[in-house]
């Protein structure tokens, strides 16, 4: 939803309308399956090496790179490059905004699915 008068577009991942349904709490940046998997992997650690995330999420280098770029532009992932010995390495980490967005997104998913995680469905 953009304002045709200003040319402004809402920020990626931010809600543009208020509503009572929990789907309004979903983050469009995180909601894509590969990005959700990346963010979930990074939520479990302070930082993770690019290759570890790639292998965990089961995607190619190029797919991971494109999705990380989207998450980085949204302010959800920080990318750090360096070396281990003479080998170049890339580390990925969730930012504070990324952790908050992931937590809110998970709350919205739980609310859509029926609420309490501790409920026994058996």
TrEMBL record:
Stretches assigned to the Winged helix DNA-binding domain: 34-112
Domain of life: Bacteria
Protein name (database record): Transcriptional regulator
Matching PANTHER family: BSL7504 PROTEIN (PTHR37318)
Record-linked InterPro entries: WH-like_DNA-bd_sf, WH_DNA-bd_dom, WH_DNA-bd_sf
Region (Disordered): 1-22
Organism: Streptomyces halobius
